[in-house]
Design a protein that fits this description.
Length: 319
């Protein structure tokens, strides 16, 4: 995964108003990710979670990389990170990242089989039909479908008329192009992701959902699609997402990590006509070494129904 810091394009686009939920039906949630990577960050991350306990949040989403890219993929470390997320007073939804399983083949990570590590992640982080956190919330899991019984990490839930869905799409090119076994895993998982995404949008249209939030770890390089020439583990996902966004017609919000810098913009262009897809907003989370969290407020009673606010942690000292 990369630590390149992207420019904060449009960082204030959706953050001009205070991001507090005030109108009936309004709510806020937090996005965190790409942390903690080491022992010192674990202390800071614990403090971050404690500060979020005092915020009025419906839930928290961790968009992946709960460990460093060069740390061992130990069962004990997974369990420690699970217990850390469980300390949150809010429901916590965890999305797997590349550091958490696809990169575990590295010698520095213990030379594990990534697929075996993914199976262990499923045992540790997705043991029931509920989220993590002290106030766990009920979730739908794709594993309820016999054909996709392995994919417990693909989750879905609703808050009012808003649909939320997670997909297992990590960094490191989505586990494509490294080995024959990795490529086979990639294609099987992406078949599950496509089905889960399509069903979510079908449900959203049927029930008249006000918006759909799609969450995953990788930065899929929206800006390069469809001109990407190198083999890409994200091309098919982006094509499917574009079709769903266009056909849905209503607002869609894509939330991910991977590049370790807060960002919000509209990066997606229709591959047929080249115009920006105005109904898709992207939110990218903070990540090590600059920890922080993103408050996302959904306020159906306001003309600015979606408000996004970046919060570095620790907060800057007041002058």
């Amino acid at each position: 995964m990369t630590r390149r810091l992207l420019p904060l394009l449009f960082a204030g686009l959706l953050a001009a108003a205070p991001a507090r939920a005030e109108n009936p039906g309004a709510f806020s949630f937090a996005v965190i990710g790409d942390a903690p990577y080491n022992f010192l960050e674990e202390i800071l991350f614990r403090n971050l979670l404690a500060s979020l306990d005092r915020e009025p949040l419906a839930f928290i989403v961790h968009v992946g990389d709960i460990k460093g890219g060069s740390s061992l993929c130990l069962d004990e470390l997974y369990q420690e990170r699970r217990e850390l997320l469980d300390e949150s007073a809010h429901p916590v939804v965890f999305v797997p990242g590349d550091n958490d399983w696809t990169d575990c083949h590295r010698e520095s990570n213990g030379a594990y089989d990534p697929r075996e590590r993914l199976d262990m992640l499923r045992i540790v982080f997705y043991p029931s039909e509920k989220s993590l956190g002290k106030q766990a919330m009920a979730l739908e899991r794709q594993s309820a479908v016999t054909r996709f019984s392995d994919y417990r990490e693909n989750q879905r839930w609703r808050v009012g008329p808003y649909r939320f869905v997670t997909l297992n799409i990590p960094g490191s090119n989505n586990n494509l192009g490294r080995s024959a076994d990795g490529d086979a895993e990639h294609h099987a998982r992406m078949s599950a992701n496509r089905a889960w995404l399509a069903e979510t949008f079908r449900l959203a249209k049927t029930e008249g959902a006000a918006a759909v939030f799609v969450m995953f770890h990788a930065n899929p390089r929206f800006e390069r699609f469809p001109m990407e020439r190198r083999p890409s583990g994200y091309r098919d996902f982006l094509a499917r997402l574009e079709d769903e966004v266009r056909n849905f017609g209503g607002p869609v919000v894509a939330i991910h990590g991977d590049f370790h810098a807060f960002l919000t913009d509209r990066p997606f262009r229709d591959r047929h006509i080249g115009a920006v897809l105005e109904n898709l907003t992207r939110i990218q989370s903070y990540g090590t070494p600059a920890l922080g969290w993103v408050r996302v407020t959904v306020d159906p009673g306001s003309p600015d129904w979606l408000r996004v606010e970046g919060n570095p942690f620790p907060p800057p000292r007041s002058q």
